[in-house]
């Protein structure tokens, strides 16, 4: 006979379902500002947490007037004119996506 594992609280069950459905490493809620992004980063497992911290530090160094937000379970980075890129942690990998990446100058090389 197999033993059923107790998954705990409704929040834990919801987080497990999210990971099973999307592969996201965090069930972060949408919110604007530095605090939600820092909380999102702290909620990540390693090595995604370390990668996200480095990405955040690079964004802070490179973008004057940096604004941050959590949207769709990922960290968004931008300037007052709009969003530049998003960084999301998934089970087994970290994803970096450029918003309107086709407008990057100079155009990145294709490999």
List the helices and strands and how they pair.
Elements (H helix, E strand, L loop, with lengths): L9 H13 L8 E2 L1 H10 L4 H15 L4 E5 L2 E6 L2 E9 L2 E6 L13
Antiparallel strand pairs: 1-2, 2-3, 3-4, 4-5
Specify the overall morphology. Answer: globular
Largest sheet: 5 strands, antiparallel
As a whole number of angstroms, the C-alpha radius of gyration is 16 Å
Q: What's the helix count? A: 3
Poorly predicted residue ranges: none
Helix and strand content put the structural class at: alpha+beta
Number of strands: 5
The topology string of helices and strands comes to: HEHHEEEE
Helix share, percent: 25-40%
Global mean pLDDT: 83
Strand order of the largest sheet: 1-2-3-4-5
Span of the ends, CA to CA: 52 Å
Taken as a percent bin, the fraction of beta residues is 25-35%
Characterization of this structure:
The chain has 111 residues and is of the alpha+beta class. The chain has a domain of 63 residues. Helices cover 34% and strands 25% of the residues. A five-stranded antiparallel beta sheet has the order 1-2-3-4-5, with helices on one face. The N and C termini lie far apart (52 Å).
Give a nutshell description of this structure.
It contains three helices and five strands, in the order αβααββββ. The protein is α+β, with helices and mostly antiparallel strands and 111 residues long. The longest helix is centred in the middle third of the chain and has 15 residues.
């Amino acid at each position: 006979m197999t033993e059923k594992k107790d998954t705990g609280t409704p929040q834990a069950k919801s987080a497990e379902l999210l990971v099973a459905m999307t592969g996201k490493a965090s069930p972060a809620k949408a919110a604007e500002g530095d605090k939600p992004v820092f909380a999102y980063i702290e909620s990540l497992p390693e090595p995604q947490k370390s990668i996200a911290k480095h990405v955040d530090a690079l964004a802070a160094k490179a973008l004057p007037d940096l604004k941050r937000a959590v949207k769709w379970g990922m960290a968004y980075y931008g300037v007052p004119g709009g969003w530049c890129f998003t960084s999301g942690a998934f089970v087994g990998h970290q994803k970096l996506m450029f918003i309107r990446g086709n407008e990057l100058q100079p155009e990145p090389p294709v490999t």
